[in-house]
Amino acid sequence: MRVPIRQFGHTTGHQSQQWHKSPLNPNPNQQLSRHTPVQDLQRSKINIHLTLASPGHDERQNIEITQAIDKLQEAMTGVGCDNSTFISVLTDSKFQDPQTLHQFTYDYDSQTTLNLAEQIEQKTQGFFRVALMALLKGPLDHDVYTLEKALSGEDADKRALNDVLLCRSNANIRGIVRKYNSTPGRDLVQLIRSKVDEDLFRLYNVILSGARGEDAVLDMTEIDVKVAEIQRLIEGSPTTDLTPIIDILASANDAGLRAMSSAYENKYQRKLDHGIARKFCGSSMEDALLQILDYATDRGKSDADGLWNVLRPSTKDDSIFIYRALRLYWGGTERLQEVHAAYKKTYGMRLLDNLNGSLSGDYRELMIALIGEKSTSTYMYR
């Protein structure tokens, strides 16, 4: 059966439909010619693929979903609940695509006349509950939820804002802004303006306007001009207007940032991130610009540092950790492999060992199932 799987496109920010490539039908767009004689097919030993059932006509799929629903209902029978069943069902590989998990949640609610999210709220607790609820929300809704929390106080949670807004594609930024502003009376840009200083708002405004460069062939002459301008401003007087640096780095794509970083080091024999750290030392802008540069130049190490910084006892922050861990889970196998390799190289220990030492109970088991070394996530949401 060819099952239409709806996913957030990692380059468009919109949901798109893709055909699931089953082992029996690896390329559903490729068909055998109707004029090819059967005897020729047999002689050349071309495999003839069986026509699979249309969506909704494969009882095996219905049985799997029904079994998963039954398991969750059984796990919530009585006063307590079987948290291990929550973990095994909701982190199953067939639900790694958030749209598939969303459909399962809808099916659960429809078939049981209950509400899975409400039941999880009632039956679980602590950060185990927080992580499960985030998983059910999916990438876009959890981005919006994280923004809501970050902007709810008198001062914005700048670390959470950076996590949601920095290093994202224009398409995903548009999706986030559209979703946030879909609630009447809300304007994300104006709210951020009221919560952060002028320089930081300039950075966020460039990003929120969708002005970040799209993937394209790099113009090295333009790269050299920008590098020279950054160097002039970094070496300028303390009163030098630094907003051009903000504009240049906020509007560049990852390839452009890597090129600028490399050109800067080759030309001036020092690292660009060191110059940024010195010029913006101690400010919120320093953290934001370095996060942009670090992610572009070494994504694996940037992700590893992000987890390490919120897992160590002195700076532990479970809410931020859950957000970053789920972004990795939704980011796909390649990104998870990068962070595991970088973690071992940078900190001399496996991420799995750090999870075991820093977390506990069912919360620990859930996060290991999501981003442990055996995770097989293939979904991508950048």
TrEMBL record:
It comes from the Eukaryota. Keywords: Annexin, Repeat. It holds the Pfam family Annexin. One of its GO terms (molecular function) is calcium-dependent phospholipid binding. The keyword Oxidoreductase does not apply. One of its GO terms (cellular component) is cytoplasm. Belongs to the annexin family. Residues 1-36 are annotated as: Disordered. This is Annexin domain-containing protein. Residues 9-20, 27-36 have a biased composition (Polar residues). The keyword Repeat applies. It comes from Trichoderma breve. Gene3D superfamilies: Annexin.
